[in-house]
User: Fold this.
Amino acid sequence: MTTRRVIPLARRSALVAAALCAQMAVAQPGGAIEPLGSRGSVNETPAQQLNVGVTERLGEQVPLGLPFINSNGDLVTLGASFDGERPVILALVYYDCPVVCAVVMGKLTEAFKGIDFNIGEDYNVVFASIDPSETPALASPTKDRYLSVYDRSNGGKTAAGWAFMTSPADSTRALADAVGWDYKPVAGGEYSHPVCIFVLTPDGRIARYVYGVGYEAETMRMALLEASDGKVSESIGDKIRMFCYRYDPATGKYALVAFRVVQLGGVLSMLAVGSLVGVMLIKERMRGRRLAAAGSQPDAGDHPTHAQPVSESKI
Assistant:
């Protein structure tokens, strides 16, 4: 009796598993669910990710004249966030993104909180929506939410330096093309896109691509130093770090360069030796001057003393 009951149950389980496998689907970021089956395999790139990626264009200029609408509903240009003095962090997102973009914006905000540079004072930030249907009615509360998380009003400078923009499709597409960031709409009103942000120089040139969502505060700090050519900080420590660290695309972080350390050590050693020699020379000169000064003064033992005449007493 037991055998007759176990076999049908095993067969039923196998049939259910086979049916589930046949209907198994893979969800791509911002895309609809695509069944694998005969239309794909685990070794093929899903359709939603085809023609989606990043072509790095380091050093190239982004079009600052592109029109956007800020979170207040004002028509502005991209160049409004570039003042020629502060570097800019740019993220192409869409505010109603169910997963990836919310993570990107949240992780970036955490990284911003972890560095001692202030938005609107030391650098600016631009979040630009790639969804032309989004409006300031969505951008404004999104901005308020992240400003609250950042929690540094800085006398209103933070709100002024952190732009949440929407735009017609043409502006967003032109900006994405300029930075080499390919995206495309997919079923359900979502978008498939790479996960990458951009660090731009104060005049709008692409200085660094930062990939993934694990934005470390130190990486962002170094990227801002690099993009500003060190102008965002005047500390000697930051100048030394800029010299000794270089961005490693393989890890997405700034790594210590041994050759630079050796160079810096050699320079510091030469300075130390030069300083020591200089101090010794100065001391030797001062000693020589003291001896010369002492030798030019008359010594009391070298001159005859004049005896005072003794008065003779008359007897």
Remarks:
- Residues 258-295 form the longest helix (38 residues).
- Residues 1-46, 232-236, 258-264 have pLDDT under 50 and may be disordered.
